[in-house]
Amino acid sequence: MAQDFTRAYAETRDASDSLAPYRGEFYLPQDGIYMDGNSLGLLSKRAERTLLESLSDWKELGIDGWMSGRHPWFNLSEQLAALNAPLVGARAEEVMVTGSTTVNLHQLVASFFKPEGKRTKILADTLTFPSDIYALKSQLELRGLDPSEHLVQVSSPDGRYLKEEDIIAAMTDEIALIVLPTVLYRSGQILDMARLAKAAHERDILIGFDACHSVGAIPHAFHDWGVDFAYWCNYKHLNGGPGSVGGLFVHERHFGTTPGLAGWFGSRKDKQFDMDHTMTPADDAGAFQIGTPHVLSLAPQLGALEMFNEVGMDAIREKSLALTTYMTALIDEVLAPYGFVIGSPRNETQRGAHLSLEHPEAARICKALKQHRVIPDFRAPNIIRLAPVALYNTFTDVYDVVMTLQTIMENKEYEAFENVREVVA
Ligand SMILES: *Cc1c(COP(=O)(O)O)cnc(C)c1O
Q1: Are 95 and 285 in contact (CB under 8 A)?
Q2: Is the shortest distance between the CB of 133 and ligand 1 below 6 Å?
Q3: Domains in the chain: how many in total?
Q4: Options 210, 228, 377, 397, the catalytic residue
Q5: Is the same domain home to 226 and 149?
Q6: Which protein residue's CA is at the shortest distance from atom 5 of ligand 1?
Q7: Which end of the chain is more exposed for a tag (fewer CB within 10 A), N or C?
Q8: How far does the centroid of ligand 1 lie from the alpha carbon of residue 243, in Å?
Q9: Could you list the residue range(s) of the whole structural domain that residue 369 is in?
């Protein structure tokens, strides 16, 4: 881009942004700038409406809300799965909105990890989200396998990025299952899922992905890439609300696999209320549900997901990249002299939807940002994550955040705070 570092330039970009009208759909913090949509997406008016409608159904209908509410609860998970499917490149039957990220990982590993003979190990990486590693270790322990031997974690040469070659080299004949992130939660690196899935299958290994940082942020083609399974949360880029119900994908070639953790909501819907003690699992991804859906944590997704389907992931990705590329240029120009390092891929094809800004004083710089009513997030020990979100952030937001950081550094405002993280960072 022609290097123009004026605020007027940012305003010009906003004026020609076709997604600009969506900003008005969200409740934005008053006189502040929200840059944390990768941790908790904001409430939209549509999500609020569908939540309140479900609440009224409960108020007015009691138990009948299951079948005759405005959004009948009995089929709500399936309805939301159909809205999630285009975002992950899946058939509607391959997706289910259920559980939470970590619970879905437990379910999928319980269902698809089948140690046999020499193949008894799970392959993951050293940069992934801790909850995933806790879940994998406990799944191994439940099978009587020692995690220190049976969990293999590919390491990163620089602490930021993973190399697909290293991951492929670790796909030995002792590996039964691979679990990797789609987008790394710190650096925002996108892994080449198609390449990894192909390499895994050539070696008879199953592969699943944690899509928390990619769903709603980048397009996917889980079905065509042949990914075996995936799971994600709907409260980050998808704006489903705090603790909103998660999502899972199971490739249709695995339909009929017995769920590792069975429960009555995994039944075929027409059989569920037979109350038979022999379960008849659904013949699609619905089989991996466990118990009664958390209706009030599903309901906001109806409104929230509508917007993603209206706009389409390609348009969201295009604006998201425009925002992060613009932010990268501004940071290079304005913040590099203060010792900031961009710890995210500069190459657009490898970059997710946030930028990771590294600085030794990151914890207290974040506190100073909050005092200026800019909401970032902090990841120990030295990362400020900034997520300009396509549906509700502007180029002017990006400009103002970078200039606020410059003010904080220039005046050493961060020195007024302690350089330690808060409880929820
Ligand atoms: C946010 C996040 C989780 C959170 O899991 P929950 O079960 O929803 O708490 C897991 N994995 C990754 C990569 C995440 O970013």
Answers
A1: yes
A2: no
A3: 2
A4: 210
A5: yes
A6: 101
A7: N
A8: 10
A9: 3-31+312-416
Look up the CATH number of the domain holding residue 334. 3.90.1150.10
Pair 356, 187: CB distance under 8 Å:
yes
Q: Does 191 lie in the same domain as 332?
A: no
Which candidate in 229, 319, 385, 414 is catalytic?
Answer: 385
Whether 40 is in a domain gets the answer no
pTM score of the predicted model: 0.97
**Which candidate in 137, 236, 319, 367 is catalytic?**
236
Q: Which of 105, 191, 233, 294 has most ligand 1 atoms within 8 Å of CB, for mutation?
A: 233
Say if residue 128 is in the same domain as residue 17.
no
pLDDT in tens, 208-245: 999 999 999 999 999 999 999 999 999 999 999 999 99
Instruction: Please indicate, yes or no, whether residues 8 and 58 belong to a single structural domain of this protein.
Output: no
Identify whether 236 is a catalytic site residue: yes
pLDDT in tens, 143-171: 999 999 999 999 999 999 999 999 999 99
Statement to judge: residues 325 and 387 lie in one domain: yes
377 lines ligand 1 (CB under 6 A): no
Q: Which residues pair with 321 in a beta bridge?
A: none
The reply to whether 387 and 372 lie within a common domain is yes
The reply to whether 383 and 350 lie within a common domain is yes
CA 112 to chain centre: 22
Q: Is 385 a catalytic residue?
A: yes
Per residue in 15-53, pLDDT (tens digit) is 999 999 999 999 999 889 999 999 999 999 999 999 999
Is the confidence at residue 2, as pLDDT, over 70?
no
